[in-house]
Amino acid sequence: MGANILVAGGAGYIGSHVCKMLKKMGFNVFIYDNLSHGYKFLAKYGEFVLGDVGDRRQLELVLKNYKIDVVMHFCAFIEVGESVQNPRKYYDNNLYNTINLVDTMLDCGVNKLIFSSTAAVYGMPERVPIDEDDKKDPINPYGRTKWMIEQVLKDYSDAHGLRYVAFRYFNAAGADPEGELGEAHDPETHLIPLVLDAALGIRKSIKIFGTDYPTSDGTCIRDYIHVNDLADAHIKGVEYLLNGNPSNYFNLGNGKGFSVREIIDTVKKVTGKDFPVEEVERRPGDPALLIAKSEKAKKVLGWEPKYGIEEIITHAWNWHKKLKGVES
Ligand code: UDP
Question: Is the pTM value of this prediction over 0.85?
């Protein structure tokens, strides 16, 4: 019998891919989602429970009734710009509701948590690739909520018997290689799906936010990591906790950077489509370079990312056409 896993936010982009992989590995999967940003059609690998991480009574029922062993927590707002405009929304959900979730877990005797953190905890990094112990100095409320929670988790781990793994994702991208799941943000702000919209002609052009960065071609460089590689790390994180290991935190990235122009060129190559590219002002708050050092996850968890940028974009493209109801 596999362990019982509660996937809070299992109807979202990364959570849904994790559910599918958990199921394949023989775990019992329970999806807990309020569907504010997730979709029922993505919640197909696990038993679905409608609920909010801020709802203590509903959480208690689920944790106890399903005898949950490990909680995975993907319920967070992720838009940097919105977090600057409306920090209250972010502190309320990403910070307050997460503390509520962890308190409720501990009160119900559940002490194992996988937490979704982000490269945004590093802010403007002093060097790349970024090591886990490099300075944390988030530059927007979104990154601050994630870093605050990591500190709360550490304190709870030291004092209250919580055991957690925090994963700091770099740029999650790609889609289920079997074409059943993928990204469906509304509104969409991420580069790859927006470029794919331009390839489909749904968007008349793609805008490059800033061409005067101190990088090889003047555009920002990011470390894009396939969502299934992220999912694989989560499975390894669950096993790590179930095997009695101590709390830990890991970067998850490929360790390779691609510029915005390189992403656009790769989309053109993979899709065989051409589309207009506009060069516009920088988007406030974007660091020039974000590249992960993920040696720790490799060493401690035995994780090895499998997918390169062309596969990431190919899988994203296959999903994107399906999502938009367009065959080309
Ligand atoms: N970007 C861009 N045009 C867009 C969307 C994003 O040039 O329409 C750039 C953005 O400035 C950043 C990179 O693409 O340098 C990745 O942005 P995304 O929002 O996908 O992820 P982030 O790195 O902000 O988490």
Answer: yes
